[in-house]
Amino acid sequence: MAKQIKEKVEFLKQLRADTYLLGFRSPYLVQVAKPGQFVHIKIDEKITILRRPFSIHKISKGIIHILFRVRGRGTNLLSQYRQGGELDILGPLGNGFDYIQRATSSAQRILVAGGMGVAPLVFLGEKLKEIKNGKIPVYRPSASRLAFGSPRRTPRDEQAGRIKNTVILGAKNKNEVLAEQEFKRLGFEIRIATDDGSRGFKGTAPELLAKILSVQAPNSLSANIYACGPKEMFFNIAKIIRRYRHVHAQVSFEQFMGCGMGVCCGCAVETKNGYKKVCKDGPVFNLREI
User: Fold this and answer.
1) String of b and e for 86-116 (b: at least 16 CB within 10 Å)?
2) How far apart are the C-alpha atoms of 123 and 39, rounded to whole Å?
3) Buried b / exposed e across 191-216, counting CB within 10 Å, b at 16+?
4) Is the pTM of this model over 0.90?
5) What does the radius of gyration of the chain's CA atoms come to, in whole angstroms?
6) pLDDT in tens, the chain (290 residues)
7) Is 7 helix (H, G, I), strand (E, B) or coil?
8) Is residue 219 classed exposed, middle or buried when 0-12, 13-18 and 19+ CB atoms within 10 A define those classes?
9) Which DSSP string corresponds to 12-57?
10) Pick from 4, 130, 3: which is nearest to 59 by CA?
């Protein structure tokens, strides 16, 4: 349930010329927030009327981390905050990733980040690591119902356990790659794609994804993809997974929002089931329904 809370800035770090990491404490958000959800921050009501949405980047030692890039007046003002500054926060909002029910041990887990799309994926990576380490029980189908509990291990599970969680970090060039160290600490296999080829694979994150998936036969491949980035990236991923029946993809939309609570309808996207609101029905959607 979303609440309006006021917290103090713990720190604000400049990571790149226009990229910042902000941290604040919130026992409530630490307890209830889920990967893929976001917070709406009122920055300066005298200058900006609307709140600004920010994905929860990660949670570490009781501190909520927000990763953002200066794109306009609101984020420019936020980049000027200092330790102790007051934040007016509404959250958590939206529906996050379905990472528990999809976390079968026989399926690969691939995170795909396009530029600043990495923002919500570190928090998801934290939870996927907990699942892999057995700290979070996962859903397993039983004969009569979907049971919740720790699964019995099988030889197939033992073999699948050697499959690493993978993250694809896409960027324009090597200087814009973000969150690499965070994913290293989480034990992810890191694959990097840069548009100019200055590091890793030369091309886009979806192109690298296609290369990774192509090593297995379409009917035998089982994978769960979690992606965030520009809409064009989602269209490309959708084309790639058409031939893979057992590949599921969830995507988190980067969208301008007005109210953030489904009232103003300013963030609607078209789906196969009609128009949906990114702030309320999303920001995470099943890609096959878009």
Assistant:
1) ebebbbbbbbbbbbeebbbbebbbbbbbbbb
2) 14
3) bbbbeeeebbbebbbbebbbebbeee
4) no
5) 19
6) 899 999 999 999 999 999 999 999 999 999 999 999 999 999 977 788 889 999 999 999 999 999 999 999 999 999 999 999 999 999 999 999 998 866 555 788 999 999 999 999 999 999 999 887 777 765 554 433 333 333 334 434 434 444 579 999 999 999 999 999 999 999 999 999 999 999 999 999 999 999 999 998 888 889 999 999 999 999 999 999 999 999 999 999 987 777 777 788 778 888 998 999 998 999 999 999 98
7) strand
8) exposed
9) EEE-SSSEEEEEEE-HHHHHH--TT-EEEEE--TTT--S-EEEE--
10) 130
Alpha-helical runs (H) found in the chain:
27-32, 73-78, 121-132, 155-160, 180-185, 205-213, 231-241
Rounded Cα distance between 4 and 24, Å, is: 14
Q: How far is CA 50 from CA 42, 73, 158, 259, 268, in A?
A: 7, 11, 50, 7, 17
Per-residue DSSP letter, 188 = P
Whether residue 250 contacts residue 287, with contact meaning beta carbons closer than 8 Å, is answered with yes
- Give me 259's structure tokens: 């109210």
